[in-house]
Amino acid sequence: MKDNARIPLVDLCSQYDDIKKEIDSAILNIVQEGSFIRGSSVSLFERNFANYIGVGHCIGVGNGTDALELILKSLEIGSGDEVIVPAVSWIATAEAVSNVGAEPVFADIKDDDYTINPNDIVKKITARTKAIIPVHLYGCPCDMDEIMHIAGKNHLYVVEDCAQAHGAEYKGRKIGSFGIASAFSFFPSKNLGAFGDAGGVVSNTKELAEKIRMYANHGQLNIRHSHHVIGRNSRLDTIQAAILDVKLNYLDNWNSKRREAAEEYSKMLCNSHSYTLPHSSLDKNHVFHIYAIRCKFRNKLMLELDASGISSAIHYPHPLPFLEAYSYKNSVREEFPVASAFCSETVSLPLYPEISAHQIRRVSENLISNDPANN
Ligand SMILES: *Cc1c(COP(=O)(O)O)cnc(C)c1O
């Protein structure tokens, strides 16, 4: 790549170039077999992904949002129930709760690593609360000891939203293995991404896993035309499963490269006082789906970066309770002080496994030159 070429936020093409032969032959196999729905490629990936996370079961589904919704539905969470979710996430986390007829109740995030604040979870529990959905935001594990403790004490389910955190670990244990069931998204730009929409549920509970599989496949289990419940159609495509099975072998290596890139950014930016860098903790093995910094002049900074050929993005510009979709809740900023400040300051920098040292240096030098504290 030319030295001054635009630096994208993510680069899916360079990853494909590295493993093109393997991916092409996996796709061609499915096309030549002419078997596009379910089949051995799906069950093989399900087994390999369950083994990777260290759980008994994986069910491939259509996307990560469906994964969350199918878990809640199978736990019989619905009308009259409340589910606690963080005030900062992709909207899918709250949407899944709303779409099963339950009420999402937002909890504020922590000021250090921006995951859901266990103290605020406790404040939001009512007699109607049925579950907590911790989101491992940006690839950073939530405070799982505290969350599991609160859930145990209050008889609540924990459903992990792992859409941004494939391979992340909390105290040496893979995230996705803590909750009663966990949702993964394999959206193309996630740490493990398909070539289109795809998702998965993992669980250690056999009965729940079977129920989820049943709901995802028109209420059928093993016998065709035996529809036990009113289900829906949310399956993992066979071609996507074959692609994911190839990519799963590279996930740990890609995650280490993401971590190395993040360390490089943090090293280069550590003396710039206008930027708050991602927090690190020995208990949490962060997989940097996103490398975000905080900055009080975020919008101006993004324009400067753009003018220098550097892409950036905001994850996310508004806390979930302040989106129009949730305006009926009449939430106030004082209820979510950390989320409110965070969403006005966060900015995501280019980061992907194949990003070069030169690209990281170019982004960092640009940030340093835009830091008013240095000028
Ligand atoms: C991507 C994402 C989802 C939804 O996944 P899709 O596969 O796009 O439906 C859910 N939660 C979080 C936190 C995400 O980042």
Could you explain how this protein is built, in words?
There is one protein chain. The chain has 375 residues and is of the alpha/beta class. It is 39% helix and 14% strand. It has 13 helices and 13 strands. It has helices at residues 12-18, 20-33, 40-53, 64-74, 92-99, 118-124, 144-154, 206-216, 238-248, 251-269, 298-307, 337-345, 357-369; strands at 57-61, 82-86, 103-107, 129-132, 157-161, 169-170, 173-174, 181-185, 199-203, 275-276, 284-285, 291-295, 346-349. The chain has a seven-stranded mixed β-sheet with strand order 1-9-8-5-4-2-3, with helices on both faces. Residues 63-65, 89-90, 92-93, 135, 161, 163-164, 185, 187, 197, 199 line the site of pyridoxal-5'-phosphate (PLP).
Question: Quick one: overall form?
Answer: globular
Order of helices and strands: HHHEHEHEHEHEEEEEHHHEEEHHEH
Small molecules (ligands, ions, cofactors) in the structure: pyridoxal-5'-phosphate
Largest pleated sheet: 7 strands, mixed
Q: How far is the first residue's CA from the last residue's CA?
A: 31 Å
Main attributes of the structure:
single chain; 375 residues; alpha/beta; seven-stranded mixed beta sheet; three-stranded antiparallel beta sheet; 13 helices; globular
Would you summarize the structure shown here?
The protein is α/β, with parallel strands linked by helices. 39% of the residues lie in helices and 14% in strands. It is built from 13 helices and 13 strands.
Which helices and strands occur, and which strands form pairs?
Layout: H1 12-18, H2 20-33, H3 40-53, E1 57-61, H4 64-74, E2 82-86, H5 92-99, E3 103-107, H6 118-124, E4 129-132, H7 144-154, E5 157-161, E6 169-170, E7 173-174, E8 181-185, E9 199-203, H8 206-216, H9 238-248, H10 251-269, E10 275-276, E11 284-285, E12 291-295, H11 298-307, H12 337-345, E13 346-349, H13 357-369
Parallel strand pairs: 2-3, 2-4, 4-5, 5-8
Antiparallel strand pairs: 1-9, 6-7, 6-11, 8-9, 10-12, 12-13
Helix pairs in contact: 2-9, 3-9, 4-5, 4-8, 10-13
This protein binds pyridoxal-5'-phosphate.
